[in-house]
Structures are given as C-alpha cells and as structure tokens.
C-alpha cells in the first residue's frame, strides 16, 4: 500500500439519535482497495430521510455517498486509481459474479454493499463520506475528476448526476421530444439541463414555485399542462406520478426514479397502455457507465449552467448535524468539508 498505512482518522457517525464524532483507526487496505481523503461531501436527500426516520438503515453508520476526494493510499498495483488521483466513486459495490451482475444489473447485485449505508460495527467501518477518509473497496466504480472542476460540482456526480444519466437512458432518444420533469430538486434540475442538451423541449413541475422558477436557468420552462412524450418523476409522490402518467401522448414513456419509499399505489388502465403504445419503467441506483457519463456531462456544461450555485457553502465535519435538514428553496445541496 502506498502513502498512508496507519493512524487515526475521524468520522461523523449516525447513532440513531444524533451524530457522534468517532476516532477510527485506518485499516490496512486489501488488494484493490483505495484510501481516499474526502475533500467535500454533499448531503443527499436519502440521508435526510434516514435521520428523519423516513427510511431505515444500518446504525451506527457513517452516512454520506456523494463526495469527491483524492486517493492517498492503494492496496496494490491492481487498484483502479493511483495515489494523487482526484476521484468520485459509485454508491454501489457489486460482487460482479451473481446473475444480476452478469446480466448487466450490477446496481441490484444480490450481495450489493453501498457507500454510506453500511454498519460502522462491520469490517468496512470507513464506508461513508462524512469522514476525513473513506475506504473505497475493490469493485467500486471510480471516475477521475479534472482539477478544473470545483468540488461542489463534482461531488453530486456520485449520486444525483449519475442517477439522472440512468433515468435519461431509460427515457430513450430525447431529440425533438417533449419532456416533463416532475420534481425539480437536485436530480430534477440536473435532468432538465441534461434533457435540454439532448435536444428535448423541457418543462418542469414542482409544488415549490421558487424551485420551479430557478430551473429556468437549467434549460426548463414552466409546465403548461399539455401532453408530453416523456415524463420523468423524481418527486416520489404517487399523486404526481398518477397525474404524469395521464399526460402521456401516443408512444409516451414514463420513467420513475423518485419512488424509493412506500406510498399509495397508482392506477394504470391496461387498455390505454395498449392503444397508446405507452411504456412505464423504473430505475434505481445506476450502472458504472452512468458515473463516467455524469462526470463528462458536468465537465462539458460547466460554463453553461450554474452548478456550483446549487450547493451551500460547506460546514466542518463536526458540524454535520447542522446541515442534516432540508435546505432553502434556492439551495439544493448542503455540504461538508471534512
């Protein structure tokens, strides 16, 4: 292993009732592992759901799965990056051998491990990004990040932007298509810009008027209630999904990406699906190619859209608890600088 091999690091640990600061011994790296110094971590909505009790997860744990950092140690020469590389890393760590992995669904690996979702009492203690260092295990997809890309732009690539890349892939060819984005938080705003870049005419719908207005800077227009070719839902609201499904024109496609918690079912008219050639599909997490696409997209559009303005100025790691709460309308991501 190169460079850092022993010593202590610090992590902000979710205990179920709050955040405690732990001193954690940096482990010896196994073959293919990376030790990464976390430079900036952004706060994803799923972490807010964890601390508010809306979703369950391992506890105690080091949360955080959107981050950017530099490699300071490698397990051996087979590692996916080198010391000094500036990288982002995927949320999922697949086995690469099960039927799901070999059929192209590594995000739904039968034995998947997830960054920011594992127990701090397991062998993978440094598994989340709300820490000074994280161990990125062998099998995790990593993408190198240009030094010219600000931390606040790069960090969301690891979850929000990569998930959007997966959602747009599921939506199909968007050139010349009418696209409705439902829910314009970080993912919705990113999807609006990405769909616009792919030649779509994009409208957005959000119950927060300020968010809806702010999305205009990312290539979107306010929804006019018209029929649409593609609807992509990031809201997770069953009522919003129902309404979007009823807006699809002939050949329309509904992509669900926000429904990650239990909610009321929606109704689907099979005859309408058949007669109108409709498609309803879902995506959860993303595949390795989507992370690389996310970094490339943010790099290519860095001068076009105000990505950095979407992220609040970082707080120190010890103040993580202060940003584990919903952000103001104009700010879509809080951040921490470990």
Automatic annotation (TrEMBL):
Membrane-spanning segments: none
Keyword Transmembrane helix (UniProt): no
Leading EC class: oxidoreductase
Pfam families per the UniProt record, alphabetical: ADH_N, AlaDh_PNT_C
SUPFAM superfamilies registered for this protein in UniProt: GroES-like (SSF50129), NAD(P)-binding Rossmann-fold domains (SSF51735)
Domain named Alanine dehydrogenase/pyridine nucleotide transhydrogenase NAD(H)-binding: residues: 161-219
Source organism, top-level taxon: Bacteria
Keywords assigned: Metal-binding, NAD, Oxidoreductase, Zinc
UniProt xrefs under InterPro entries: ADH-like_N (IPR013154), ADH_phosphonate_catab-assoc (IPR017743), AlaDH/PNT_NAD(H)-bd (IPR007698), GroES-like_sf (IPR011032), NAD(P)-bd_dom_sf (IPR036291)
Domain Alcohol dehydrogenase-like N-terminal: 31-147
Cofactor: Zn(2+)
The EC number(s) this enzyme carries: 1.1.1.1
Family statement: Belongs to the zinc-containing alcohol dehydrogenase family.
UniProt name for this protein: alcohol dehydrogenase
């Amino acid at each position: 292993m190169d460079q850092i091999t022993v010593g202590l690091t610090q992590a902000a640990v979710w205990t179920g009732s709050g955040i405690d600061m732990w001193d954690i011994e940096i482990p010896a790296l196994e073959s293919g592992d990376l030790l990464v110094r976390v430079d900036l971590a952004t706060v994803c909505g799923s972490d807010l759901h964890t601390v508010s009790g809306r979703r369950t997860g391992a506890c105690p744990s080091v949360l955080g799965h959107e981050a950017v950092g530099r490699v300071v140690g490698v397990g051996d020469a087979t590692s996916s990056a080198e010391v000094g590389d500036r990288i982002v890393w995927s949320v999922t760590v697949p086995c690469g051998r099960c039927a799901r992995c070999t059929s192209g669904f590594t995000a739904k690996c039968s034995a998947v491990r997830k960054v920011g979702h594992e127990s701090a009492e397991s062998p993978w203690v440094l598994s989340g990004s709300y820490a000074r260092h994280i161990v990125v295990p062998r099998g995790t997809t990593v993408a190198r990040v240009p030094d010219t890309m600000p931390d606040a732009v790069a960090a969301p690539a690891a979850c929000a932007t990569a998930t959007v890349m997966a959602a747009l892939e599921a939506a199909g060819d968007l050139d010349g298509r009418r696209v409705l984005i439902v829910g314009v938080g970080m993912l919705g705003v990113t999807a609006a810009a990405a769909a616009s870049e792919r030649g779509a005419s994009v409208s957005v719908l959000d119950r927060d008027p300020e968010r809806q207005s702010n999305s205009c800077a990312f290539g979107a227009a306010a929804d006019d209630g018209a029929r649409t070719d593609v609807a992509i839902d990031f809201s997770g609201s069953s009522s919003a999904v129902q309404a979007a499904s009823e807006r699809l024109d002939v050949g329309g496609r509904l992509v669900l990406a926000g429904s990650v918690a239990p909610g009321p079912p929606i109704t689907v008219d099979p005859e309408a699906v058949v007669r109108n050639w409709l498609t309803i599909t879902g995506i959860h997490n993303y595949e390795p190619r989507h992370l690389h696409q996310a970094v490339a997209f943010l790099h290519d559009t860095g001068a076009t859209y105000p990505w950095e303005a979407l992220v609040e100025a970082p707080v120190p790691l010890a103040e993580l608890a202060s940003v584990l709460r919903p952000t103001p309308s104009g700010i879509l991501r809080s951040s921490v600088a470990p």
